[in-house]
Amino acid sequence: MNIIFISNREGKSRSITLNNWAKVLLSVCLLGLPVCSGIYLGMQFGVGESDLVSSIELMKQELASQQAELDSGRTEARQKVEALTLKLAAMQARLVRIDALGERLTDMASLDDGEFDFSQQSALGGPEQDQVSVFEHGDLERLYSQLESQLASRESQLHILESLMVDRKLKQQGAVTGRPIHKGWMSSRYGYRTDPFNGRKAWHNGVDFAGKSGADIVAVASGVVTWSGKKSGYGQMVELDHGEGYITRYAHNKQNLVNVGDAVKKGEVVGLMGSSGRSTGPHVHFEVYKNGRSVDPASYIRRTIR
Predict the structure, then answer these.
(1) For residue 80, how far is the Cα from the chain centroid?
(2) Are residues 32 and 105 in the same domain?
(3) What pLDDT shows up at residue 71?
(4) How many of the other CB atoms lie within 10 Å of CB of 81?
(5) Do 10 and 102 share a domain, yes or no?
(6) Would you say residue 254 lies in a domain?
(7) Same domain for 102 and 21
(8) 85 and 61 both lie in a single domain
(9) Within a domain: residue 157?
(10) Are 219 and 264 contacting, i.e. CB atoms less than 8 angstroms apart?
(11) What's the mean pLDDT when you consider all of the chain?
């Protein structure tokens, strides 16, 4: 194989004759260069694609992790909202009970309308201060804690007041006070008087209230009926035992409206005014006994229980 070199300046040419080994070496060089280049480029391309795939996988993992954290945050937030909602519902129920209790106490105490109106919101006020637009979670927790503490205190105080008011009401119900009629006038007092039938001086064991025949006779205290029927000199009579040694009698009735063993409340009608027994006209003979002894009813008629 001959290789000819031509020079443009001198116009001369040279030729080189290659042997077999030279031919092989030259062929390897000429053919190997493209092959090596291709292999090198292939290796470079392959390494870049692998890095790209790895980066994509890392991004997918990061996105999955962030999505999991987001889902967890949403779940936690929903649970907190549900918990706060349950707290609000419980507090609302407690407030409803407190309002009902307050209204009951107001009614029991006969307080003036408007003084304790539990149907209205509590009156609040104060100068305007810098405000925070958003409550932090910790702030909400502290707020709930304060409200719960206030509610517990308010409930405790109201229960104490209710207990006191119940005791007071029971005391008022059981105390012998007031008149045994709604309408009428006192026609005879307790003590010695002139007997209306024979004109002699006689002891009168109670007080008389004159009125219209058939008018209501009411219990002056809560108690239990121990007598309801005819009694010598009294005509139709009702006797009540109020406990603590107190007994009251309502006599000369036109009709008794209660029976032995009945429990009656203060102000309940126990009979109708009449003129049965030893009587000169429609009236009620009212007696009070304390520990088995007759006492002047006038002091109990004017008595006030606080």
Answers:
(1) 22
(2) no
(3) 77
(4) 10
(5) no
(6) yes
(7) no
(8) no
(9) yes
(10) yes
(11) 76
Q: Based on the domain organization, do 190 and 287 belong to the same domain?
A: yes
* Token output for 156: 């405790």
Report yes or no on whether pTM surpasses 0.70: no
Pair 159, 245 in one domain: no
* Residue 179, domain member (yes or no): no
CA distance 247 to 206: 12
- Is-contact 240 225, C-beta < 8 A? yes
Predicted confidence (pLDDT) per residue in 202-221, tens digit? 999 999 999 999 999 999 99
Question: In this structure, what are the phi and psi dihedrals at residue 259, rounded to the nearest 5 degrees?
Answer: -120, 160
Asked if residue 66 lies in contact with residue 119, where contact means CB atoms within 8 angstroms, the answer is: no
Residues 145 and 189 in one domain: no
Instruction: Find, among 271, 269, 174, 178, the residue nearest to 223 by Cα.
Output: 174
Question: What pairing do the DSSP bridges indicate for beta strands 191-194 and 263-264?
Answer: unpaired
Tell me how crowded residue 12 is: count the other CB atoms within 10 A of its CB: 9
Count of domains for the chain = 3
- For residues 136 and 149, which has the higher predicted lDDT (pLDDT)? 149
Asked if residues 144 and 86 have their Cβ atoms less than 8 Å apart, the reply is no
Nearest to 285 by CA among 238, 224, 230: 238
Q: What domain range includes position 22? A: 2-70
State the alpha helices, DSSP H only, in 110-219: 137-174
Q: Is residue 258 predicted with pLDDT exceeding 90?
A: yes
Side chain identity at 161, as an amino acid letter? L
